[in-house]
Design brief:
heterodimer; A: 487 residues; alpha/beta; Amidase signature (AS) enzymes; eleven-stranded mixed β-sheet; 16 helices; 11 strands; B: 85 residues; two-stranded antiparallel sheet; 2 helices; 25% helix
């Protein structure tokens, strides 16, 4: 058997379809890899070997009969916020410990239908609130490139699983950067689609006007394949677009000759950006210019207000969404409570971690009568200004290019005492969520030996543009996602 | 109280200090004049694409109750909300 760890979808499909490798062998190889290193990486909250073996057997049957889907046999890791029927799904929270959803979310279903093999649920910050996976209600995940550092977050387990060669592909969610930032910090490709591109049915909601599901992969081609499979109208999500999912591949494979790539000066010189990150971005811009793109200076003047607006809107939406965790219908419960209110208080006191409590407090405060205009309404107006900034910038360029994160992966524990320093991790990504834009992060070299991510943002519904820029850079630079050895 | 979080002794001081720092950052929004700016609640043009109103299978009672911390007689069990007469 050829050693399959570290291969991408196309390479694996070649082996699978030419019968040099079976889906069962491929699954076993990944479960073995997980068995040998995940006690150190801790990317997975729980494994699903029985489901994997069933799906691998089905993939092998389909490969034999010539009816295999595009992901037949491909090992997939799923962020613990996406419901899978019968598989414990907890959003990284103690409050949902033991919850087994009675249905599977649409994005996951579509990958299953294409033949993917689910290996397990990956760790994340509780309810996807965080940028380091340290807010998990279970344990922190470690960056496979430096085990004393964070993998980013909130989808840190999914990113680490792909980076460490434990899975070929993974799913994450991105509300303020939770796919792109961990992809950057672990040296893999991660993509957040346009708001409405992928159905959120079956996603445990954090902030409903910002959340999107998206892929992690080893290369841009794989991310494009996954996105095309997940995208498109779902009758079960009234915010899912009726645009064809296939349009994300329009013009795929074209280069960037004649394209204008905007470099926002506020992003380029963002406060706290590390010199090594800046140098890697400069090199990436040179490579893109060398491939025929025009580099233009653009401005996003309200960048300094993005974080403030985000930390009103996201907590406000979360405080409302998390009201459903009342200990009555699912999850942790204090069933011997004296009365209903006592039950709520005791269940939520035991079930929610510090960051979730902080955000629920912030959100209920911002929405409370008397403060609504000053905070929530104000933040929604600033959201308009941020959206207009991007609209104006896209008059001058086809896509926006920047670093994904101002820093490389930071040491575990270094930011947990200061929530604002943690929130600043997302300063270059959350604008894309506020404006509903598609964005991709891909590896663009290293700083102090750790991966740096290049972010490409495109206008709404312009995933194909972001993918085109990303793929051109990947080919021109030769920079590829590598498998972290995890020695 | 509004958030039903069940604070413990010492929590108030802990969160008050952190939230003050975050709110101090958030206060920069007040520097912007937004009088003539409409609010944005939703950023894309998609609005309430509803599906056809056709019945489809839902969860069975058993499935809906499967995750209940306490169920009795086919219902979720909750503490009583009224005093006995």
């Amino acid at each position: 058997m050829t050693e399959p760890i570290g291969m991408n979808i196309n390479e694996l499909q070649h082996l699978l379809r030419s019968r040099q490798l079976s889906a069962a062998e491929l699954t076993a190889a990944h479960l073995e890899r997980i068995g040998s290193i995940d006690s150190r990486v801790k990317a997975f909250l729980r494994l699903t070997p029985e489901l994997a073996s069933e799906q691998a057997a089905a993939a092998d049957r389909a490969l034999k009969s010539g009816e295999a889907g595009p992901l037949a046999g491909i090992p997939l890791a799923v962020k613990d916020v996406l419901c899978v029927r019968g598989v414990e799904t907890t959003a990284g929270s103690q409050i949902l410990r033991g919850f087994k959803p009675p249905y599977t979310g649409t994005a996951v279903s579509r990958l299953f239908e294409a033949g993917a093999v689910m290996l397990g649920m990956t760790n994340c910050d509780e309810f996807a609130m965080g940028s380091s996976t340290e807010n998990s209600g279970y344990f922190p995940t470690h960056n496979p490139w430096a085990l004393d550092r964070v993998p980013g977050g909130s989808s840190g387990g999914s990113a680490a699983a792909v980076a460490a060669g434990e899975a070929v592909i993974a799913l994450g969610t991105d509300t303020g950067g939770s796919i792109r930032q961990p992809a950057a910090l672990t040296g893999v490709v991660g993509m957040k689609p346009t708001y409405g591109r992928v159905s959120r049915y079956g996603l445990i909601a954090f902030a409903s006007s910002l959340d999107q599901i998206g892929p992690f992969a080893r290369c841009v081609d794989d991310a494009a394949i996954l996105l095309a499979l997940m995208a498109g109208r779902d009758p079960l999500d009234a915010t899912s677009s009726d645009r064809s999912g296939r349009e994300v591949l329009n013009g795929y494979g074209a280069d960037v000759k004649g394209m204008r790539l905007g470099v926002p000066r506020e992003y380029y010189a963002v406060e706290g950006i590390e010199p090594g990150v800046k140098a890697a971005i400069d090199e990436a811009l040179k490579a893109l210019a060398g491939a025929g793109a025009g580099i233009v200076d653009v401005s996003l003047p309200h960048t300094d207000y993005g974080l403030a607006a985000y930390y009103i809107i996201a907590p406000a939406e979360c405080s409302s969404n998390l009201a459903r965790f009342d200990g009555v219908r699912y999850g942790m419960s204090e069933v011997d409570a004296l009365n209903v209110t006592d039950g709520y208080l005791r269940t939520r006191r035991r079930g929610f971690g510090t960051e979730v409590r902080r955000r629920v407090m912030l959100g209920t405060y911002a929405l409370s009568s008397g403060y609504y205009d000053a905070y929530y309404l104000k933040a929604q107006k600033v959201r308009t200004l941020i959206k207009r900034d991007f609209d104006a910038a896209f008059q001058k360029c086809d896509a926006i290019v920047s670093a994904t994160s101002p820093t490389v992966a930071f040491p575990i524990g270094s930011r947990t005492q200061d929530p604002l320093s943690m929130y600043l991790c997302d300063v270059l990504t959350l604008g894309g969520n506020l404006a509903g834009l598609p964005g991709i992060s891909l590896p663009c070299g290293r700083s102090n030996g750790l991966p740096v991510g290049l972010q490409v943002l495109a206008p709404q519904w312009g995933e194909n543009v972001a993918l085109r820029v990303a793929r051109t850079y990947e080919q021109a630079s030769g920079v590829k996602a590598e498998v972290a050895p995890v020695a | 109280m509004l958030a039903r979080l069940g604070l413990e002794p010492g929590d108030e001081e802990f969160y008050a200090e952190q939230l003050s720092g975050i709110l101090a950052h958030i206060d920069r929004l007040q520097q912007l004049n937004t009088e003539s700016i409409p609010p944005t609640a939703q950023v894309v043009e998609v609005t309430n694409l509803l599906r056809e109103d056709v019945p489809r299978p839902g969860l069975t009672q058993g499935e809906a109750l499967a995750n209940a911390p306490a169920a009795v007689g086919g219902s979720f069990r909750v503490p009583s909300i009224q005093e006995e007469a």
